[in-house]
Specification:
Blueprint lengths: L2 H12 L1 E3 H7 L4 H13 L3 E4 L2 E4 L2
Antiparallel strand pairs: 1-3, 2-3
Helix pairs in contact: 1-3
Length: 57
């Protein structure tokens, strides 16, 4: 799986998650995870509320 799909899967399963929790859970470098988060936000798949990320169903 690519980084983006892994990030999407983890956010979907966890409900609400912080970026630092994502960095700890995923075995990818932080810049790659950050880029995946930005892409998912642009695609309206996840949203950010304060420091938390949430999957939009």
């Amino acid at each position: 799986m690519d980084v983006k799909s892994e990030v999407e899967k983890v956010v979907k399963e966890s409900g609400w998650i912080t970026a630092s929790q994502l960095f700890k859970v995923l075995p990818y470098p932080a810049p790659e995870v950050n880029n995946a988060i930005i892409q998912l936000i642009k695609e309206n798949k996840i949203e950010r509320r304060g420091r938390y990320f949430h999957y939009l169903s």
